[in-house]
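This week, look over our next protein:
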Amino acid sequence: MWLLKLPFKILVIPVILLLEVFWVLGKIMTNLSALVVGIFMLFIFLVGIFCAFQGQWGNVVFLIGVEMACLVLQYGSMILVDVFGSINHLLIKFLCS
């Protein structure tokens, strides 16, 4: 049985290395972008409060949409990095079997 798995194990090694690089770079990039996007979202929130006091409800709705888009993109990138890590872990388990 191990002879049947050997070619797949040989082919999975570069995939594991590539996914590991994507995982590490993605982890670093999501952490750094969370800092930048967090400051940007704080600014948008403060502008939204200012617009609410001014009675510019159209701008408030637009800014809420921008905040939600920032959250969705940030969490989407974190989920993508987590999926890369999970696939990499499963491939490593296959390689060790």
Q: What stands out?
A: The first helix runs from residue 2 to 54.
